[in-house]
Queue: 3 jobs
Job 1
Amino acid sequence: MKNILENRRILIGLSGGIACYKSCELVSCLVRSGAEVRVVMTGNAARFVGPVTLQALSGNPVRSDIFSPIDPGGIEHVSLAEFAEVFVISPATADCLAKLAHGIADDLLSTTYLACDCPVLAVPAMNTVMYEHPATQANLAVLEARGVHLMLPESGRLACGTEGVGRLPGFERIVERIEHLLCGSDSLAGLTVLVSAGPTREALDPVRYLTNASSGKMGFAVAASASRMGAAKVNLVTGPCSLPTPHGVSRHDVVSADQMYKAVSRLLPSADLLVMAAAVSDFTPLRPARKKMKKGGSDSLTLELKKTRDILAYCSSNRKPGAVVVGFALETENDLDNAAVKLRKKKLDYIVVNNALEPGSGPGSDTNRVTVLGSDGTRLELPVLTKRQVAEKLLELIAGKRDK
Ligand code: CTP
């Protein structure tokens, strides 16, 4: 079987509790399994186990002081967050959970948590009474509702001499959970997924173009999630954007709406699932100038534009039998009504609606608040989530319906 941990980038966070010594075994096991492990620890954690121990086990310098970064030019919490494919906080003390739940960022571990977009696994360990305290339980509930993965502590003899719930699970169990988070699911197993992303550029002349504010983040997140969910092939057709290609995704760079249409229609026959997240220009200059346009003496300029092909509508009518087609609708008013019209007119299976004027939504933002409408009457209203979480929820919905 393929080793899931091989070359995977795992960030381990230790907050200050006696169970810190068990996280040494965890780090050692992950490194032996081929993972690249970095460690961030709080000042209190460093009282329980020495950073030198974790440095030797992980093979990397241990980070703990926000004001003494290892890379003097870097912003440590951001680079750690970017490094991590999964962030495992083990042990997570009552104090650490409280900070995470309330967004307090007063040390490197808690600041890194806020900067992380990857799955986070928190493994609480503490005295039973502290664990069962309503404050701790409320903090755990908040974190769980936000999508933090939690491992429940085990029962047994605790360091304080009592018996009860609060022990850190054995490192093998934690490793198993990390593997699960990293390998994702197999809910799209065997499927070929085609995703469009980013803006298009419509040339006015050799140096000027019409475009829009799309960053490509939503489409890239869908492609990354499809790959994590076991899709056999993920083709990502993207307009100009500087995002890195997600792991396991085949990228096809295009510039104009016409190029996007050609690339998508070439990949269409193999696609079982199409998610068209690109912000395709609806119009393109009728006669782009071959040489740079001169402003001349006039005070105004009228551009003549022609409609581009609707790639989504084309895909919907020419899809392979059984393929599922998903469109996006970015609205500024009457969101759901407008989207419902697009859903029907383009004969889509689903449409993902968001409002560009809402805070935390729209082009460029790292988050989005969307509603998914389905031709079968589905209506899934999601809270403000990161685009990665939106992508996961969308694909889970589609995969779940396919199973039925
Ligand atoms: N789309 C496409 N090809 C186009 C235009 C849009 O594939 N030429 C896709 C987008 O990727 C998105 C959906 O269609 O999935 C957006 O629908 P559309 O009706 O084009 O939305 P708007 O362009 O926002 O339309 P309107 O301006 O009428 O609201």
Job 2
Amino acid sequence: MNKVKIGMLGIGNIAKGTYRTLELSRKKIEDSTDVSFEIVKILNRRPDVDRGIDIPKEKYVTDVNEILDDPEIDIVVELIGGIEPATEYMAAALSRGKHVVTANKAAIAANGEMLQRIAQENHAKLRFEASVGGGIPIINAITTALLSNEFTEVLGILNGTTNYIMTQMTEYGKDYAEVLKEAQEKGFAEADPTADVEGIDVANKLSILISLIFGLYIAPDDIPTQGITSITTEDIVTANDFGYKIKLLASAKMVEEGKISCNVLPCFVPADHPLAVVNNEFNAIYVTGNAVDNLMFYGKGAGPLPTGSAVMGDIIGIGKSMGKDAAYDKNPLLRYDADLDFVGEGENQYYIRVTAIDKPGVLGAVASTFGKYHVGIESMVQRAGQNAGKDSVPLIFIVYKTDRKVLDQALNELIENNYVESVDNVLRVQE
Ligand code: HSE
């Protein structure tokens, strides 16, 4: 039986999940691959801390070079997260001809091209299945089983923390701050939840998916991104009244030949859309290919064992092909060669909630201003509710497809002309 030796960087939740996944399935993996995989060294800068897992202490090393310089190690598994020093360590491993497996969406979205180039120059493989969608084998599916398709669209719920928060707000009427606290207590959300709740984590994942699906690099910072922090119970109730659920969606599509739009935005999703029933920590990715048509992948997008399963999948894939001339590596996973233009957020339908001045003529002026900018109103509701008898009133619109910049100009004009006190929320509406 061939032996594959692994050096693992990090001993956090995903690393422990990967270790456990290998131990749980060792026999099955060996029987079906004829390869024995062993995690021989683990970078653990604080070996005296109890990690809650039974790992022989002699596997722990405190200096990364004990792994990077070890000629016996075939695969380096990077699970420390963050762009640096993770990128530096992966580059060092690849330049020494070691294969690299990572779950690190931030590092791949920022430096994937450079890492892939080093991998190719050194005949090594770079694999990152766990970087998108946790346990969902979406990258493997797109780059192997679905390779015969030209894709026109990818749509996804790619963050478990925010989907959990939105689900709890929707199902139990809890407010954002209450659910976030609860999610942190349950270990779902990080102590600093910024990357999740501001959509940064999803923008990293979407950037990777776009390169795989369309062959175009769009840096995460260039993707129009809005998190979920502005969503109120009022938005959720209104969505429900109109027949929608609010979800943080990543979207990229071919809007016309040669033009790609993409965004990460909280969206009104029709209640009968398959993505509307993806709840709690689950993720889903919906792709449209010219041969396969619509396809949805659903599963746990976070957590040690689901993510460990994805990491192990990459390790096994590399282990099985080691020593062979793997033809598919001549075509790297990440592609940045497409002749496509990125056209920003694209034209979309939007839900708009404003607080308008409550006096005669205002509603007409708001409608005329939208008309002036060619923003068509599909639905409209005025809800006096708690504002009854006050000087202002909430107005809610769903508008037909429009350019976001044009819509923002119309909304600014409403504020400048004192018809509207504040624009309280603008959310994309998914078709
Ligand atoms: N923080 C991510 C989430 C998991 O909540 O989905 C890792 O990508």
Job 3
Amino acid sequence: MKIVQGNMIGSGLRFAIIASRFNELITSKLIEGAKDALTRHDVRHQDIDVYWTPGAWEQPVVAKELALSGKYDAIITLGAVIRGDTSHHEYVAGEAAKGLALVGLEHRIPVAFGILTTDNLEQALARSGSKAGNKGADAALAALETANLLREVRKDRGADA
Ligand code: INI
């Protein structure tokens, strides 16, 4: 039986973080969580770049361009879509999720989904560094593990890394 998994060693890997200015109170904390998680796993500060978008809606097109650049081993998307009085937030969250999933598949690069989708600000605060952890850190670690897993899978296939 063969078990293949990605290790959690970040040295030499390069990451792009895409973060929304919308709900920056939350997203700034997600960025801190993501950066902390990566550097604790030996990713160098200079190998982490942060790109700001106006909102979650704009993230897929930026992710696509970054994937095309070939500069990164993984992309980490961070945002907070909080339910409002209208259905606007549903379109924003749904299209961001669809678009980001497409970028990962088309460009064969891990695109971690660290966009919170919550009913209220309290739930978002709980997930950005308080009682429910920090989803920015979780997304960063998922990106790191998947980047290393893809390396293993490509090695197995004899494909270029
Ligand atoms: N963008 C977010 O990142 N989170 C939200 O909660 C949100 N809501 O609810 O409106 C939001 N809207 C802005 C959107 O991402 C675009 O920036 C805007 O529609 C302009 O294209």
